[in-house]
UniProtKB/TrEMBL annotation, chain A:
<keyword id="KW-0663">Pyridoxal phosphate</keyword>
<dbReference type="InterPro" id="IPR010970">
    <property type="entry name" value="Cys_dSase_SufS"/>
</dbReference>
<dbReference type="Pfam" id="PF00266">
    <property type="entry name" value="Aminotran_5"/>
</dbReference>
<dbReference type="InterPro" id="IPR015422">
    <property type="entry name" value="PyrdxlP-dep_Trfase_small"/>
</dbReference>
<keyword id="KW-0456">Lyase</keyword>
<dbReference type="InterPro" id="IPR000192">
    <property type="entry name" value="Aminotrans_V_dom"/>
</dbReference>
<feature type="domain" description="Aminotransferase class V">
    <location>
        <begin position="44"/>
        <end position="413"/>
    </location>
</feature>
<dbReference type="InterPro" id="IPR015424">
    <property type="entry name" value="PyrdxlP-dep_Trfase"/>
</dbReference>
<dbReference type="GO" id="GO:0016829">
    <property type="term" value="F:lyase activity"/>
</dbReference>
<keyword id="KW-0808">Transferase</keyword>
<dbReference type="GO" id="GO:0031071">
    <property type="term" value="F:cysteine desulfurase activity"/>
</dbReference>
<dbReference type="InterPro" id="IPR015421">
    <property type="entry name" value="PyrdxlP-dep_Trfase_major"/>
</dbReference>
<protein>
    <recommendedName>
        <fullName>cysteine desulfurase</fullName>
        <ecNumber>2.8.1.7</ecNumber>
    </recommendedName>
</protein>
């Protein structure tokens, strides 16, 4: 068919790294892939929730457990040294990936949510007061929205929301009004997980810095799908998760400018984050370890770096081009239907996801029927309940794409949506 | 990559598990039953003189149900049930079917009902992820009755585990 030539990346070669893509679905969920009813090919279009894990990353995990499993920063013995070196170098790899200066600016966390909470607790509880405002956007993920909302309640700070216009873009005039001298923090999502909007975070950083505020950029959907340079966007904080970019769950990264991280108190106390402890006092380890108390997720951290290597091998410019190609194709195909609402900007100006509703079919019914076709999509509020309230909907269906997806898989989605529409017509 | 292409609705209905859910183990009658209740809900709307009223939701799904119940003069037997709400086919059809099922039932019998009774009423297998959609209406009526009898003090029912 010659389809492969028409993609910016070698999809066929990439798919070979992901054996899960070859499994069949449809059977008993308690025996994954093993049952007689597992007879339907899988079309996995739920990558904004989590991506799959290539052999190279699975091997990085098994190499660690099979070859050099040991606690880090604890022992003089050989295995501990090997584990420590690999775990520390993983920070360097992640730092390079997003344009950070070095490992001192990269704290490994459980995920993006924990990174948000780390800054909200360690910086926000100390720095915010009743005269301060925190500026968010109406399209924030709950990870950012709920966290700042609750920290603001504790500190008396005011929360303000930058309006999302009818086309799914941030109203930048409104942003310029909201961000003022009372603003201490601007926390915005880089790529919306619901609308697919790519926000002008560098412009927002300028606005924040004009008023001596800091900016936290939620990169959960951007770091996996496009080149990111935290210095170019002048973010003070930037966070993302490993599992949305071919890495394992349980690992993510918080980038922070060194001087700011240096000035912050620890978020968690315990082993590994201290330098000297007496019965009365403690002093802290250097960055980033000051923020990594207790035994960290060692295998996951090392595998996170393997995932970064995997993505860089493909090339993030090419990844972005592939994402945009599939998003536009899905947008155009869904637009062929009457009675399908698609949320967010036009097909040629969005990240690699499309959230939509089919008239007369609840998103959960749609997702269940589509699942029967082997097509995996998300249905629900995607952790943006206030945005769904604003859109006047309880839930939506969302298809999201990654490096192994093809136009043919989107065609499967379209066939399944057609069947759901016919059933409920 | 395998590409199964468009299926005709009939072969599709015969094959897929969710349709089993909607149509009941491959039987057209059950498909008709649930889809029919969803598209043409029975006793839909609000009662003018309910003995008690209660609301509930599945926050993660956005399913909402409001139930109005009128009791007989004995204060014990359900005379009439109506519902309104918004949500998926399973949640709304389950509510509609309950409004037909419950009149004549006592509040004691209502309190004894569990999720198996709802699944049996729907006549289909319900996947674990969707069970809360199926039981929402039952739980709203049960909680409404408990509030009416002074055994419960909540504003709204949710089905989150």
């Amino acid at each position: 068919m010659g389809v492969q030539e028409s993609y910016p990346i070698d999809v066929e070669a990439i798919r070979a790294d992901f054996p899960i893509l070859d499994r069949l679905v449809g059977g008993d969920v308690e025996t994954p892939g093993q049952g007689p009813d597992d007879d339907t090919p899988l079309y996995y279009l739920d990558n904004a929730a989590t991506s799959h894990t290539p052999e190279q990353v699975v091997e990085a995990i098994s190499d660690y457990y099979r070859g050099y499993n040991a606690n880090v920063h604890r022992g003089i013995h050989q295995l501990s040294q090997e584990a420590s070196v690999a775990y520390e170098e993983a920070h360097d790899t992640v730092a390079d990936f997003i344009g950070a200066a070095g490992r001192e600016e990269i704290v490994f966390t459980k995920n993006t949510t924990e990174a948000e909470n780390l800054v909200a607790y360690a910086w926000g509880l100390t720095e915010l007061g009743p005269d301060d405002s925190v500026v968010l956007s109406e399209m924030e993920h709950h990870a950012s929205l709920v966290t700042w909302q609750q920290i603001a309640k504790r500190t008396g700070a005011e929360v303000r929301y930058i309006r999302v216009d009818d086309d799914g873009y941030l109203d930048m005039d409104h942003a310029a009004e909201l961000i003022d001298d009372s603003t201490a923090m601007v926390s915005v999502v880089h790529v919306s997980n619901t609308l697919g909007t790519v926000n002008p975070v560098a412009d927002l950083a300028d606005l924040a810095h004009d008023h001596d505020a800091l900016i936290f950029v939620d990169g959960a959907q951007s770091a996996p799908t496009r080149p990111v340079d935290v210095e170019a966007m002048d973010a003070d904080f930037f966070a993302f998760s490993g599992h949305k970019m071919c890495g394992p769950t349980g690992i993510g990264a918080l980038y922070g400018k060194e001087a700011i991280l240096e000035s912050m108190q620890p978020y968690l106390y315990g082993g590994d984050m201290i330098r000297r402890v007496t019965y009365e006092e403690s002093t802290w380890e250097d960055l980033p370890w000051k923020f990594e108390a207790g035994t960290p997720s060692i295998a996951q951290g090392i595998a996170f770096a393997a995932a970064v290597d995997y993505m860089e091998e493909i090339g993030m410019d090419a990844v972005q081009a592939h994402e945009e190609l599939l998003a536009e194709y899905a947008y155009d195909r869904l637009s062929e239907f009457d009675g399908v609402d698609i949320y967010g900007p036009p097909g040629d100006d969005r990240g690699g996801l499309v959230a939509f509703n089919v008239e007369g079919v609840h998103a959960h019914d749609l997702s269940s029927i589509v699942n029967d076709h082997g097509v995996a999509i998300r249905a629900g509020d995607h952790c943006t309940q206030p945005l769904h309230d604003k859109l006047g909907i309880a839930a939506s269906a969302r298809a999201s794409f990654y490096v192994y997806n093809t136009r043919e898989e989107i065609d499967e989605l379209i066939d399944a949506v057609t069947d759901a529409r016919d059933l409920f017509a | 990559m395998a590409h199964t292409g468009p299926r005709t609705p009939e072969s599709f209905y015969a094959k897929v598990p969710y349709l089993k859910l909607l149509m009941g183990m491959g039987s057209d009658m059950y498909r008709q039953q649930i889809l029919d209740h969803y598209k043409n809900p029975r006793n839909h709307g609000e009662l003018e003189d309910p003995t008690f009223t209660h609301v509930g939701e599945n926050p993660s799904c956005g399913d909402t149900i409001k139930i109005d119940v009128r009791l007989d003069d004995d204060g014990e037997t359900i005379d009439y049930v109506s519902f309104s709400g918004d949500g998926c086919a399973i949640s709304q059809a389950s509510a509609s079917m309950l409004t037909e099922r419950l009149p004549g039932t006592t509040l004691g019998e209502l309190a004894e009902m569990d999720r198996d009774d709802v699944v049996e009423m729907l006549g289909v297998d319900i996947s674990p992820m969707r069970i809360k959609c199926a039981v929402l209406a039952e739980k709203v009526i049960q909680d409404g009755a408990k509030i009416h009898e002074g055994d419960l003090d909540i504003d709204e029912t949710t089905t989150e585990e």
